[in-house]
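fold-stage: in
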Amino acid sequence: MTEPVITGRCSTEKAEILARLQSYRKEHGLGCLADVAKAAGRGITDDTLRGVLHGDVTLDIKGWRQIGKALDRLTAAGEDNGG
Protein backbone atom coordinates (compact mmCIF):
# COMPACT_ATOMS: atom_id res chain seq x y z
CA MET A 1 0.00 0.00 0.00
CA THR A 2 1.26 3.44 -0.98
CA GLU A 3 0.89 6.26 1.55
CA PRO A 4 -1.25 8.94 -0.13
CA VAL A 5 0.67 12.07 -1.13
CA ILE A 6 -1.40 15.20 -1.57
CA THR A 7 -0.02 18.12 -3.55
CA GLY A 8 -1.25 20.99 -5.65
CA ARG A 9 -4.12 23.40 -5.24
CA CYS A 10 -6.24 22.97 -2.11
CA SER A 11 -3.79 20.38 -0.78
CA THR A 12 -4.48 21.37 2.82
CA GLU A 13 -8.23 20.87 2.38
CA LYS A 14 -7.66 17.55 0.61
CA ALA A 15 -5.33 16.36 3.39
CA GLU A 16 -7.94 17.25 6.02
CA ILE A 17 -10.64 15.29 4.18
CA LEU A 18 -8.26 12.34 3.76
CA ALA A 19 -7.54 12.36 7.50
CA ARG A 20 -11.27 12.40 8.23
CA LEU A 21 -11.84 9.50 5.82
CA GLN A 22 -9.03 7.49 7.41
CA SER A 23 -10.45 8.18 10.87
CA TYR A 24 -13.99 7.28 9.79
CA ARG A 25 -12.83 4.00 8.29
CA LYS A 26 -10.80 3.15 11.39
CA GLU A 27 -13.80 3.86 13.62
CA HIS A 28 -16.48 2.19 11.47
CA GLY A 29 -14.62 -0.74 9.94
CA LEU A 30 -13.84 -2.08 6.51
CA GLY A 31 -17.43 -2.14 5.24
CA CYS A 32 -18.11 1.56 5.83
CA LEU A 33 -16.76 2.74 2.47
CA ALA A 34 -19.96 1.67 0.70
CA ASP A 35 -21.92 3.96 3.03
CA VAL A 36 -19.54 6.86 2.40
CA ALA A 37 -19.75 6.28 -1.37
CA LYS A 38 -23.54 6.21 -1.26
CA ALA A 39 -23.62 9.44 0.75
CA ALA A 40 -21.08 11.05 -1.62
CA GLY A 41 -23.17 10.42 -4.69
CA ARG A 42 -22.36 10.33 -8.35
CA GLY A 43 -18.84 9.41 -9.39
CA ILE A 44 -17.62 8.22 -5.98
CA THR A 45 -17.61 4.47 -5.37
CA ASP A 46 -16.24 2.33 -2.58
CA ASP A 47 -13.46 1.34 -4.99
CA THR A 48 -12.68 5.04 -5.52
CA LEU A 49 -12.49 5.57 -1.76
CA ARG A 50 -10.28 2.52 -1.30
CA GLY A 51 -7.98 3.86 -4.02
CA VAL A 52 -7.85 7.28 -2.35
CA LEU A 53 -6.93 5.67 0.98
CA HIS A 54 -4.17 3.63 -0.69
CA GLY A 55 -2.82 6.54 -2.74
CA ASP A 56 -3.77 4.88 -6.03
CA VAL A 57 -6.54 7.28 -7.11
CA THR A 58 -6.28 11.01 -7.71
CA LEU A 59 -9.36 13.21 -7.40
CA ASP A 60 -10.02 16.83 -8.23
CA ILE A 61 -11.20 19.15 -5.46
CA LYS A 62 -14.84 18.56 -6.43
CA GLY A 63 -14.44 14.83 -5.66
CA TRP A 64 -12.69 15.57 -2.38
CA ARG A 65 -15.48 17.94 -1.36
CA GLN A 66 -18.09 15.30 -2.20
CA ILE A 67 -16.31 12.96 0.21
CA GLY A 68 -16.10 15.69 2.85
CA LYS A 69 -19.83 16.43 2.60
CA ALA A 70 -20.62 12.71 2.78
CA LEU A 71 -18.57 12.42 5.96
CA ASP A 72 -20.39 15.48 7.35
CA ARG A 73 -23.75 13.82 6.69
CA LEU A 74 -22.71 10.45 8.09
CA THR A 75 -21.16 11.83 11.24
CA ALA A 76 -24.18 14.10 11.84
CA ALA A 77 -26.49 11.09 11.40
CA GLY A 78 -24.34 9.10 13.85
CA GLU A 79 -24.56 11.87 16.41
CA ASP A 80 -28.34 11.97 16.02
CA ASN A 81 -28.46 8.24 16.73
CA GLY A 82 -26.45 8.55 19.92
CA GLY A 83 -23.10 7.65 18.50
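fold-stage: in (second)
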Amino acid sequence: MIDNPENTENTGNAGNTASGVNSENPASGANAEERAAIAAAVEGELRLLDAEVRASADAPRLFDPEFVEIGASGRRWTYEEMVEALPTLDGSGADSPRIEASGMRGVLLAPDLVHLTYETEIAGRRARRSSIWRRGAGDAGWRMYYHQGTPVSGG
Protein backbone atom coordinates (compact mmCIF):
# COMPACT_ATOMS: atom_id res chain seq x y z
CA MET A 1 0.00 0.00 0.00
CA ILE A 2 2.79 2.48 0.56
CA ASP A 3 5.75 1.75 -1.66
CA ASN A 4 8.71 4.09 -1.95
CA PRO A 5 10.59 4.76 -5.19
CA GLU A 6 13.91 3.45 -3.87
CA ASN A 7 12.48 -0.10 -3.90
CA THR A 8 12.53 -0.22 -0.10
CA GLU A 9 8.91 -1.13 0.41
CA ASN A 10 7.02 0.89 3.02
CA THR A 11 3.37 0.50 3.89
CA GLY A 12 2.93 2.98 6.65
CA ASN A 13 4.03 3.54 10.18
CA ALA A 14 2.73 3.58 13.69
CA GLY A 15 2.07 7.15 14.66
CA ASN A 16 1.05 8.15 11.17
CA THR A 17 -0.97 11.29 10.83
CA ALA A 18 -3.66 12.49 8.52
CA SER A 19 -4.49 16.10 7.93
CA GLY A 20 -7.01 17.59 5.60
CA VAL A 21 -9.13 14.44 5.51
CA ASN A 22 -12.34 15.11 3.63
CA SER A 23 -14.77 12.23 3.96
CA GLU A 24 -17.49 13.91 1.99
CA ASN A 25 -18.16 13.63 -1.70
CA PRO A 26 -16.92 16.87 -3.28
CA ALA A 27 -20.08 17.05 -5.37
CA SER A 28 -22.74 19.06 -3.60
CA GLY A 29 -25.74 17.08 -2.52
CA ALA A 30 -23.89 14.00 -1.27
CA ASN A 31 -26.37 11.96 0.71
CA ALA A 32 -25.83 10.17 4.00
CA GLU A 33 -25.20 6.81 2.30
CA GLU A 34 -22.48 8.32 0.09
CA ARG A 35 -20.84 10.02 3.06
CA ALA A 36 -20.93 6.77 5.07
CA ALA A 37 -19.32 4.82 2.22
CA ILE A 38 -16.56 7.40 1.81
CA ALA A 39 -15.99 7.57 5.57
CA ALA A 40 -15.64 3.76 5.72
CA ALA A 41 -13.03 3.82 2.94
CA VAL A 42 -11.10 6.64 4.64
CA GLU A 43 -11.14 4.71 7.93
CA GLY A 44 -9.81 1.60 6.20
CA GLU A 45 -7.08 3.55 4.42
CA LEU A 46 -5.92 5.15 7.66
CA ARG A 47 -5.94 1.75 9.38
CA LEU A 48 -3.64 0.38 6.67
CA LEU A 49 -1.20 3.19 7.38
CA ASP A 50 -0.97 2.08 11.03
CA ALA A 51 1.95 -0.25 11.81
CA GLU A 52 0.05 -2.08 14.55
CA VAL A 53 -2.82 -2.87 12.19
CA ARG A 54 -0.49 -4.00 9.40
CA ALA A 55 1.26 -6.40 11.75
CA SER A 56 -2.01 -7.83 13.06
CA ALA A 57 -4.18 -10.67 11.82
CA ASP A 58 -6.79 -8.05 10.88
CA ALA A 59 -4.70 -6.50 8.09
CA PRO A 60 -5.42 -9.10 5.38
CA ARG A 61 -9.16 -8.52 5.85
CA LEU A 62 -8.69 -4.92 4.73
CA PHE A 63 -7.54 -6.08 1.27
CA ASP A 64 -9.91 -7.36 -1.38
CA PRO A 65 -8.94 -10.87 -2.58
CA GLU A 66 -8.48 -9.33 -6.06
CA PHE A 67 -6.24 -6.54 -4.70
CA VAL A 68 -3.52 -5.11 -6.96
CA GLU A 69 -1.08 -2.29 -6.25
CA ILE A 70 1.34 -0.41 -8.43
CA GLY A 71 3.75 1.02 -5.87
CA ALA A 72 5.72 4.25 -6.14
CA SER A 73 8.75 2.12 -7.05
CA GLY A 74 6.84 0.67 -10.00
CA ARG A 75 6.50 -2.75 -8.37
CA ARG A 76 3.23 -4.59 -8.95
CA TRP A 77 1.81 -6.30 -5.85
CA THR A 78 -0.92 -8.92 -5.68
CA TYR A 79 -3.07 -9.71 -2.65
CA GLU A 80 -0.93 -12.72 -1.78
CA GLU A 81 2.34 -10.81 -2.11
CA MET A 82 1.11 -7.88 -0.04
CA VAL A 83 -0.36 -10.00 2.74
CA GLU A 84 2.87 -12.01 2.98
CA ALA A 85 5.17 -8.96 2.93
CA LEU A 86 3.07 -6.52 4.94
CA PRO A 87 4.41 -7.38 8.42
CA THR A 88 8.04 -7.10 7.23
CA LEU A 89 7.86 -3.95 5.12
CA ASP A 90 9.63 -0.77 6.14
CA GLY A 91 7.33 1.19 8.41
CA SER A 92 6.27 -1.77 10.50
CA GLY A 93 8.19 -0.85 13.62
CA ALA A 94 8.54 1.98 16.07
CA ASP A 95 11.94 2.91 14.59
CA SER A 96 10.54 3.40 11.08
CA PRO A 97 9.97 6.82 9.53
CA ARG A 98 6.67 8.48 10.31
CA ILE A 99 4.09 8.63 7.51
CA GLU A 100 2.05 11.75 7.13
CA ALA A 101 -1.06 11.56 4.96
CA SER A 102 -2.69 14.79 3.85
CA GLY A 103 -5.42 16.08 1.59
CA MET A 104 -7.41 12.86 1.64
CA ARG A 105 -10.56 13.11 -0.45
CA GLY A 106 -13.12 10.51 -1.40
CA VAL A 107 -15.63 10.16 -4.20
CA LEU A 108 -18.33 7.51 -4.51
CA LEU A 109 -17.92 6.01 -8.00
CA ALA A 110 -20.76 3.49 -7.66
CA PRO A 111 -22.81 2.16 -4.73
CA ASP A 112 -20.02 -0.28 -3.78
CA LEU A 113 -16.90 1.61 -5.02
CA VAL A 114 -15.08 4.55 -3.44
CA HIS A 115 -12.05 6.32 -4.90
CA LEU A 116 -9.65 8.00 -2.45
CA THR A 117 -6.81 10.35 -3.30
CA TYR A 118 -4.23 11.87 -0.97
CA GLU A 119 -0.55 12.62 -0.54
CA THR A 120 2.00 11.11 1.80
CA GLU A 121 5.37 12.16 3.06
CA ILE A 122 7.75 9.54 4.41
CA ALA A 123 11.22 10.63 5.51
CA GLY A 124 11.13 13.57 3.11
CA ARG A 125 9.79 11.53 0.16
CA ARG A 126 6.43 12.63 -1.17
CA ALA A 127 3.95 10.61 -3.22
CA ARG A 128 0.47 11.07 -4.59
CA ARG A 129 -1.75 8.11 -3.77
CA SER A 130 -4.93 6.71 -5.22
CA SER A 131 -6.98 3.84 -3.82
CA ILE A 132 -10.20 2.16 -4.84
CA TRP A 133 -12.20 0.56 -2.06
CA ARG A 134 -14.87 -2.04 -2.83
CA ARG A 135 -17.63 -3.18 -0.50
CA GLY A 136 -17.52 -6.95 -0.14
CA ALA A 137 -20.52 -9.24 -0.07
CA GLY A 138 -22.16 -10.08 3.22
CA ASP A 139 -20.13 -9.08 6.26
CA ALA A 140 -16.89 -8.52 4.32
CA GLY A 141 -17.21 -4.75 4.59
CA TRP A 142 -15.06 -2.25 2.70
CA ARG A 143 -11.74 -3.55 1.39
CA MET A 144 -8.95 -2.03 -0.67
CA TYR A 145 -9.27 -3.25 -4.26
CA TYR A 146 -6.56 -1.16 -5.94
CA HIS A 147 -3.78 1.20 -4.87
CA GLN A 148 -1.23 3.26 -6.75
CA GLY A 149 1.55 5.51 -5.49
CA THR A 150 3.29 8.05 -7.73
CA PRO A 151 6.44 9.81 -6.53
CA VAL A 152 6.39 13.60 -6.44
CA SER A 153 9.74 15.10 -7.38
CA GLY A 154 11.34 17.93 -5.51
CA GLY A 155 11.10 16.52 -2.00
